[in-house]
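Hi all, long-time lurker, first post. I run a small reading group and we've been trying to get comfortable going from sequence to structure in the token notation. Rather than ask abstract questions, I figured I'd post a concrete chain and ask someone more experienced to write out its structure so we can walk through it together at our next meeting. Sequence below, copied exactly:
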Amino acid sequence: MEGSKSIGRISSGIEGLDLKLDGGYPEGRSILITGGTGTGKSIFGIHFLYSACRNGKKCVLIATEEIPEDIIKQSEILGLGLSRYYESGQLVIEKAFQSRSEKVQTSKYGFTPEGLEIELPSLADFIPSSTEVVVIDNIGVFTLRLSIQDFRDQFDALNFVLSSMEGCTAMFIMDETACKMAKNIAEYSVTGSLRLSVNENPYTGNTERYLTIPKMRRTNLKLESIRFEITLEGIRLF
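-- Answer (accepted) --
Happy to help. Here is the structure in token form:
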């Protein structure tokens, strides 16, 4: 651990997680959330946005896999309603999914990676300079057409641009398959990373969700596997 008290913290929106992180994510830095299907990655993003909006911060969500209406509906179901912040303009949801779908080249085989024309650093063009929190969900779609080196170069460039925006905290959400395709190199560029998983409990036979935090700079971490549940009130850690 290095200088855990010398950096500001921004709430994750999950009380139990903030306790594990000395008060929250390092402010003005970048966080990576990875995991397989159904592990709750996007819900971690919703928690973060909801908390930031409640605290008056200007937020941007760049959605590459869902339309705004679906994201808003999911937030309302969890009791983390983003609709009022979206309607007031405090939360901006960029419709990258729709733009990507419109531009994607199709054939009898369906979508092709060549249709993903936008480069990672270009995502910063969607983010006003006054933005305080940005969530990109899912950044893994860009691994489909890039070599590992190209992804690393572009991801580093995007991370640098966002870190240059004073006071902006970034969260990147990446699916497990894409993370493995890119050899987990995204974790090297960010300040902290959270890995989510779904595993069977060998003692009970129940399928359970777990969280590990392999990296969080300037934070006093315990290397442990933390069980959590997704409830009607959002995420609850044990």
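A couple of things your group might point at:
The chain is about 30% helix and 25% strand.
The chain has one domain: 29-197.
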